[in-house]
Specification:
Helix content: 25-40%
Oligomer: single chain
Largest sheet: 7 strands, mixed
Number of helices: 8
Radius of gyration: 18 Å
Strand content: 15-25%
Order of helices and strands: EEEEEEEEEEHEHHHHHHH
């Protein structure tokens, strides 16, 4: 993982990296587009046309030469893309927030595992896929800030025991309202969403790391390999060993 101070303006583009920031407010600009997509937590952004926080389920596009202030909790993580160009709908600096759909969220889960300890630079199939997914992104936030807090909390610990009661309290809603708003925001019930993010996380770990099967099961909320394997096969149609890195 890198922090923002390690990236300079001579970096070969495009680039994808995992970054964290600090609570100390910093300010700068760069001569290329920069997209910040939270994996967990949120980032505070202030620029000419937008001031607010950006959390899981949304991203922010910072235009070339746009001076911006930013800060975040040190434990929060972000996928950061430095790009020479972005899809046309993301080029309006008066509307810098865009939605992270389910396909792009799954991509971020892959990138989190793949790039945690190093950055990707230059053209590749990964960068091309990222651009394809970005082209389908819609401007604006699909969730209220209560749901953004909830999604950020879930993604900070995908294996945790995330109950409707606890999450509705985090969103400052009653349980009935929470269930409705969560499905509107994510497209899934809480149960189905948890299964989805846990399985995508597990598949990324299987394909890109040497983490033991028990470790993957525990990281994704299962106490033993047998329970994890049953759920994984039911979700993907193949057992975990089918995806295990050779």
């Amino acid at each position: 993982m890198s922090n923002d101070s390690e990236i300079n303006e001579e970096t070969e583009l495009p680039s994808l990296s995992i970054r964290s920031y600090t609570r100390t407010v910093r300010s700068h600009a760069h001569p290329y587009y920069q997209l910040v997509l939270p994996i967990n937590g949120h980032i505070e952004i202030a620029q000419d046309c937008y001031t607010g926080n950006v959390g899981v389920g949304e991203g922010v596009c910072i235009a070339p030469h746009e001076i911006h202030d930013f800060s975040a909790n040190e434990n929060a993580k972000f996928v950061v893309a430095d790009l020479l160009s972005v899809p046309v709908q993301l080029q309006d600096k008066h509307s810098p927030i865009f939605q992270v759909n389910s396909a792009l969220q799954a991509f971020l889960s892959f990138v989190e595992v793949q790039l945690t300890h190093y950055a990707f630079y230059g053209h590749s199939e990964v960068a091309e896929l990222f651009q394809v997914l970005l082209a389908k992104s819609e401007v604006g936030s699909a969730t209220g800030k209560g749901m953004t807090r909830v999604l950020s909390h879930i993604h900070s610990d995908v294996g945790g025991e995330h109950s409707v009661k606890n999450l509705s309290g985090l969103a400052c809603m009653g349980t009935t309202q929470f269930k409705k708003r969560f499905k509107e925001a994510s497209g899934h019930s809480l149960r189905d969403y948890l299964v989805k993010v846990r399985m995508e996380k597990a598949k990324a770990l299987l394909r890109n790391t040497d983490t033991p099967m028990l470790g993957i099961a525990q990281l994704t909320g299962y106490e033993d390999v047998a329970a994890f394997s049953r759920r994984f096969k039911a979700y993907f149609g193949q057992p975990p060993k089918f995806f295990k890195r050779k």
